[in-house]
Amino acid sequence: MSVNALKIENLKKTYRNGTVALHGVNLDVMEGDFFALLGPNGAGKSTTISIISSLTNKTTGKVQVFGHDIDQDPATARSMIGLVPQEFNFNIFEPVIEILINQAGFYGISRKVATRRAEKYLRKLELWDKRFDMAKELSGGMKRRLMIARALVHEPKLLILDEPTAGVDIEIRHSMWTFMREINASGTTIILTTHYLEEAESLCNHIAIIDKGVTIEHTSMRTLLDRLRVETFVLYLEEPLSEAPICGDYPLKLVDSNTLEVGVAHSQTLNEFFHLLSERNIQVLSMRNKTNRLEQLFVTMMRDGNAENYSGVQA
Amino acid sequence: MNFSQQLIAFNTIMVKEYLRFIRIWVQTIIPPVITMALYFVIFGQLIGSQIGDIDGYRYMDYIVPGLILMAVITNSYSNVVSSFFSAKFQKNIEEMIISPLPNYIILAGYISGGVARGVTVGITVTVVSMFFSDFQIHSLGITLAVFVLTSILFSIAGLINAAYARSFDDITIIPTFVLTPLTYLGGIFYSIKMLPVFCQTFSMANPIMYMINAFRYGLLGVSDIDVTTALVIIVAFIIILFTLALSLLNKGVGIKP
Ligand SMILES: Nc1ncnc2c1ncn2[C@@H]1O[C@H](COP(=O)(O)OP(=O)(O)OP(=O)(O)O)[C@@H](O)[C@H]1O
Ligand SMILES: [Mg+2]
Question: What is the DSSP annotation of chain A?
Answer without folding.
Answer: -PPPSEEEEEEEEE-TTS-EEEEEEEEEE-TT-EEEEE--TTSSHHHHHHHHTTSS--SEEEEEETTEETTTSHHHHHHTEEEE-SS--S-TTSBHHHHHHHHHHHTT--HHHHHHHHHHHHHHTT-GGGTTSBGGGS-HHHHHHHHHHHHHTT--SEEEEESTTTT--HHHHHHHHHHHHHHHHTT-EEEEE-S-HHHHHHH-SEEEEEETTEEEEEEEHHHHHHT--EEEEEEEESS--SSPPPBTTB-EEEEETTEEEEEEETTS-HHHHHHHHHHTTPPEEEEEESS-HHHHHHHHHHHHSSTT-------
